[in-house]
Amino acid sequence: MKKTIFTISLLILISLPTPSLSQHCNKNDETTLFQIKKALGNPYHLTSWKKTEDCCTWYSIKCNKATGRIIELNIFSGNISGQIPTEVGNLPYLQTLDFHKLTNLTGQIPSSISKLTNLNYLILSWNDLSGPVPSFLSQLKNLNYLDLSFNKLTGSIPPQLATLPKLTELNLGRNKLTGVIPESFGMFKALQSIHLSHNQLTGNVPKSLGLLNFSTVDFSRNQLTGDLSMLFGKSKTIHSAYMSRNGFQFDLSKMVFPSSLEWLDLSHNKIYGSLPATLTGLRLQNLDVSYNMLCGKIPQGGDMQKIETSSYLHNRCLCGSPLPACSKRS
């Protein structure tokens, strides 16, 4: 009999939830979420946010299983309008904040976000945000990924962003940014990918960027000028470089490309010289040098003849396969 009672008691204890496995939502976080919901106009998109349900089970929310504190807020692709609620700054353990593809989300990026010092991912892309790229984002020292693309942000790029020690990817593309690429960007410690395309940036690419080793660089569709050689070289590991539709002007024949390069778009610039023979040693998936001032014979071999003919057109005097053969004068 005693053994039976002991067995039943043990089963009851096993069935009870243990604190270490608890995921009950923190009440302060829950209050903040209701404030965020109200600020966004109580959208249908957030109907699962109810007091009758543990907020760790709500749509768009992820909690730390041990503490019950909210670590992710992902709101995207919904019929939500208004501005980013300032209350998001009251979720101190947040690691990911994602407001994405909310075309009616307007206004500026609130300064309260600077309080989220545990943030690893800040994604505010494909919205209708305006105003500047805030310099206070440089206070988010744990940030790995910053994406503010596809908005209507204006003004210059704050040089303070370069003080983010863990940032590996920066995307400010598809905005209305002006001014130059900050010289301070050469101070980034971990940056691997930078996307600044489709803005109104001017001036030369800072030589300080040569101190970094990128995997992807996209400066396309700006008004940038000067040289790009600092981004390349035998010791670099750059995989993709998109530089089209700027005013870059340099001698391509003097450029040294790393073996890692697979995507290179230099089209619609003022680049002169000839195509270096070292291009034949690369595993190019895409090459576009059209609409420049290049001359001479296209190097034979490698993937050079597999490239679309259109990628060589509209230069001064490029010739040879896949273009027509060079004349004796070439």
TrEMBL record:
<dbReference type="GO" id="GO:0006952">
    <property type="term" value="P:defense response"/>
</dbReference>
<feature type="signal peptide">
    <location>
        <begin position="1"/>
        <end position="22"/>
    </location>
</feature>
<dbReference type="Pfam" id="PF23598">
    <property type="entry name" value="LRR_14"/>
</dbReference>
<dbReference type="Pfam" id="PF00560">
    <property type="entry name" value="LRR_1"/>
</dbReference>
<keyword id="KW-0732">Signal</keyword>
<keyword id="KW-0472">Membrane</keyword>
<dbReference type="InterPro" id="IPR051848">
    <property type="entry name" value="PGIP"/>
</dbReference>
<dbReference type="InterPro" id="IPR013210">
    <property type="entry name" value="LRR_N_plant-typ"/>
</dbReference>
<dbReference type="Pfam" id="PF08263">
    <property type="entry name" value="LRRNT_2"/>
</dbReference>
<dbReference type="InterPro" id="IPR055414">
    <property type="entry name" value="LRR_R13L4/SHOC2-like"/>
</dbReference>
<keyword id="KW-1133">Transmembrane helix</keyword>
<dbReference type="GO" id="GO:0051707">
    <property type="term" value="P:response to other organism"/>
</dbReference>
<protein>
    <recommendedName>
        <fullName>Leucine-rich repeat-containing N-terminal plant-type domain-containing protein</fullName>
    </recommendedName>
</protein>
<keyword id="KW-0677">Repeat</keyword>
<comment type="similarity">
    <text>Belongs to the polygalacturonase-inhibiting protein family.</text>
</comment>
<dbReference type="InterPro" id="IPR032675">
    <property type="entry name" value="LRR_dom_sf"/>
</dbReference>
<keyword id="KW-0812">Transmembrane</keyword>
<dbReference type="InterPro" id="IPR003591">
    <property type="entry name" value="Leu-rich_rpt_typical-subtyp"/>
</dbReference>
<feature type="domain" description="Leucine-rich repeat-containing N-terminal plant-type">
    <location>
        <begin position="27"/>
        <end position="64"/>
    </location>
</feature>
<dbReference type="InterPro" id="IPR001611">
    <property type="entry name" value="Leu-rich_rpt"/>
</dbReference>
<feature type="domain" description="Disease resistance R13L4/SHOC-2-like LRR">
    <location>
        <begin position="82"/>
        <end position="204"/>
    </location>
</feature>
<keyword id="KW-0433">Leucine-rich repeat</keyword>
